[in-house]
Amino acid sequence: MCGIIGYLGDREATPILMESLKRLEYRGYDSAGVAVLELAKPGEEAHTSLTKSEKKVDTLIEKLQANMPTGHLGIGHTRWATHGKPTYVNAHPHTDCHGKIFVVHNGIIENFAELKAELQAQGHEFTSDTDTEVVPHLIEANYKGDFLAAVRAALKRIHGAYALAMFSTDDPELLIGARLNAPLVVGLGDHEYYIASDITAIIPYTKRVLVLGEGEVAAVTRLGVEVSSLDGITVKPKLIQVDWDVSQAQKAASRTSCSRRFTRHRRPWPTRCAAGSPTTASSRSASSTSPTRSCAVTRRSFSSAWGRLGTPPWSAST
Q1: The dihedral of CA 108, 205, 238, 217: what is its sign?
Q2: Which top CATH class is 3-246?
């Protein structure tokens, strides 16, 4: 399971992203990256600093500490490869043709090949093998000056499972999160906000958390959070007060992570290989040491996995 963190607030984003990614390591990953919207200097346009590592989070942190981005808006990601090898190019965040829209994603986009072919026919150029890269390009294709509207339009085209955090350099005071069949929460701090794949990442910063429902989008600005459906209808999200500390959350998260990995390799969940032929993890175990790396779990099995294991409180979902 990939890990996601997003931040918008008064503090420097990069240290918060680094600390949060360390707390998300328990989920398992093979690469990591962050994107931070740098503060614009007088006479210059805002730009985004993109830093990735095809290795450990510690390697990513070393890169960031050597050249620390400065800015108050950013997103980070730890990747568990499904589409494409664990390489620098395939690591998140991903961007569009003009390097303005940045996206991190947990889940599987089932119709990415169809969307990618459509976008390529329109002139979009892709650099990675991931399913995620279709998201920023699809948003770009729908962008007409309103980033939130473009996100909603793009997500209506996507089938599968996603938890997303994203921003655009054209709208430097807006951080967007969205989810479908994958958990995502929004943390409410003091003049600062967080988007995360689970509460473990943000519990040192806030105990007040909004839990997004299926097919909901969170628009985060310095004025607050507005949650809506893909049709733009305002939704009142569920607010929870977390009553446990970091050590409790990490211990519980670690136990569930071990259970999740054991179950993934022992249960014959239906999967779809890169070639598109249905099979099961158990039937491939003799020929592949890591079947889940080469095959993408379908939306049905992805959702049923949560149902069998139960939804842990640190990755709450409705």
Answers
A1: negative
A2: alpha beta
